[in-house]
């Protein structure tokens, strides 16, 4: 049966039983079916005057964002329609500009069918909200959440997202293993991204908390994969399809690394896979973790930063935890130490490290005060929804500040930046019930400068 025949039968059947509403008339005349969102909306990174978002529709429909500075959407404004197309897998990425800094907005997604607004099963889409970033350089308090290792195959419910929503961070960072593709078929990447994006507990977080992301081995390739991954270009294409970071690598240096600023905190997100030499390769000056161009980019971003805090994010752990051939920075200590010495020699203050991957929550320290710098804390959150690991028993970070690490279940990291008095960053891990795994730890900016040793005050024994 052709589409035209189907429409004639639909019109005939409806007309015999009821008066056609304008909406039913539009549906009967449609060649694309019933409009609906298959996935999303998901917020992307905000600036002081803009917000971006991501959504996937069920066909070639026009998408409009209706938004206002109040939850009733009084005097709401609307974006121009964006057409979802098959070429883009019916994914749209609208950006809203001309917003006010540090202001809360509410929004809903509107789909059009033949120019007419379509109600989803008689109801409009749930209302979401976002807050624009403060002006760059302003000392505004805020919280970011982060985590890694979201394994849909292991846990399809993922209650940790309820805890993230409860803590209401201004941003959430997905630090890798955001899916577990573990395959050499590109369609598996799409499949895993789509079903992870559709997790019910994730929906309120995606709709209300701007998301940024980097990858680790399972969304880059196979377990512990490196630059030799034959599918890394496919993985990068899929990554760009499902995330809306402010940028991806450099013009001549592809990858998922980028930087982002919020108030007076700079976040530097690294790509620890695309250029990474195999873990088994002997360490030395020739072995690389980030690649030469990315390493120089990280140094330039650190040196040019005027922010109070600089957060270095990586999917893999920063400490010596996994040993010389382990799947972490421990396999490339020469390059890691070069970076840490650069921070010391250039007198770059306020650096904290965040990472994931280990399937346990960890609070570790690299005591660079012993090298004339200051102590570098690695704040590890893992997993969001994957099997917990007990391999930590065989691992030795430079200093483990919490023994044992958190091995009981899923967790998400929270970092709260405050500027009333001395600037400080307070860190804690949350469990699915919203409670903390351990008491929070606060790092004052005066601790994060050369010549200061502070790790002992955090040690649990």
Amino-to-carboxy terminus distance? 75 Å
- Classified in CATH, the superfamily of the largest domain is Alkaline phosphatase D (PhoD)
How much helicity do the residues have? 10-25%
Outline? globular
Largest sheet geometry: 7 strands, mixed
CATH class of the largest domain: Alpha Beta
Kindly state the number of beta strands: 23
State the helix count: 9
CATH topology of the largest domain: Purple Acid Phosphatase, chain A, domain 2
Written overview of the protein:
The model is unreliable at 8-20 (pLDDT under 50). The chain has a seven-stranded mixed beta sheet with strand order 14-15-16-17-19-18-20, covered by helices on one side. The protein folds into three domains: 1-31, no CATH class; 35-131, Purple acid phosphatase-like, N-terminal (Immunoglobulin-like); 142-458, Purple Acid Phosphatase, chain A, domain 2 (4-Layer Sandwich). It has helices at 3-17, 22-28, 160-167, 186-197, 203-208, 217-220, 232-242, 292-304, 333-345, and strands at 37-43, 51-57, 62-68, 77-78, 82-83, 91-92, 95-96, 104-113, 116-118, 128-131, 142-147, 171-175, 211-214, 258-262, 265-269, 309-313, 351-355, 362-366, 376-380, 399-400, 412-418, 424-430, 441-444. The protein is 19% helix and 24% strand. The protein is α+β, with helices and mostly antiparallel strands.
């Amino acid at each position: 049966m052709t589409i035209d025949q189907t429409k004639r039968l639909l019109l005939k059947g409806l007309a015999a039983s009821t008066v056609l509403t304008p909406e039913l008339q539009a549906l009967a005349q449609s060649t694309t079916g019933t409009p609906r969102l298959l996935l999303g909306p998901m917020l992307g990174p905000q600036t002081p005057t803009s917000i971006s978002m991501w959504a996937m529709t069920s066909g070639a429909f026009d998408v409009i964002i209706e938004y206002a500075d109040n939850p009733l959407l009084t005097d709401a404004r609307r974006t121009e329609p964006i057409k979802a197309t098959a070429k883009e897998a019916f994914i749209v990425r609208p950006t809203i500009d001309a917003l006010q800094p540090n202001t809360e907005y509410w929004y809903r997604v509107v789909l059009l069918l033949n120019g007419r607004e379509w109600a989803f099963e008689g109801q409009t889409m749930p209302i979401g909200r976002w807050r624009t970033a403060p002006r760059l350089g302003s000392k505004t308090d805020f919280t970011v959440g982060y985590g890694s290792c979201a394994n849909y195959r292991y846990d399809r419910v993922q209650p940790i997202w309820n805890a993230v929503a409860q803590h209401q961070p201004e941003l959430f960072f997905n630090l890798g293993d955001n899916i577990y593709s573990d395959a050499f078929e590109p369609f598996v990447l799409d499949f895993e991204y789509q079903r992870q994006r559709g997790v019910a507990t994730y929906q309120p977080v995606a709709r209300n908390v701007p998301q940024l992301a980097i990858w680790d081995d399972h969304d880059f390739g196979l377990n512990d994969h490196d630059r030799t991954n034959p599918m890394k270009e496919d993985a990068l294409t899929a990554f760009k399809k499902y995330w809306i970071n402010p940028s991806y690598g450099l013009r001549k240096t592809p990858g998922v690394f980028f930087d982002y600023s919020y108030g007076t905190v700079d976040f530097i997100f690294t790509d620890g896979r695309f250029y990474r030499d195999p873990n088994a390769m002997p360490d030395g000056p020739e072995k690389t973790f980030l690649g030469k161009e990315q390493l120089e980019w990280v140094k330039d971003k650190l040196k040019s930063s005027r922010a109070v805090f600089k957060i270095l994010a990586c999917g893999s752990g920063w400490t010596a935890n996994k040993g010389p051939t382990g799947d972490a920075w421990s396999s490339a200590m020469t390059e890691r130490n070069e970076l840490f010495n650069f921070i010391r020699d250039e007198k770059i203050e306020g650096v904290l490290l965040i990472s994931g991957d280990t399937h346990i929550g960890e609070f570790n320290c690299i005591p660079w005060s012993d090298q004339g710098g200051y102590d570098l804390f690695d704040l590890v959150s893992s997993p969001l929804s994957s099997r917990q690991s007990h391999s930590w028993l065989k691992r030795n970070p430079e200093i483990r500040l919490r023994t044992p690490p958190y091995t009981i279940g899923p967790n998400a990291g929270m970092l709260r930046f405050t500027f009333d008095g001395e600037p400080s960053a307070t860190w804690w891990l949350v469990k699915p019930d919203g409670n903390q795994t351990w008491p929070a730890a606060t790092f004052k900016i005066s601790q994060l400068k050369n010549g200061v040793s502070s790790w002992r005050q955090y040690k649990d024994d």
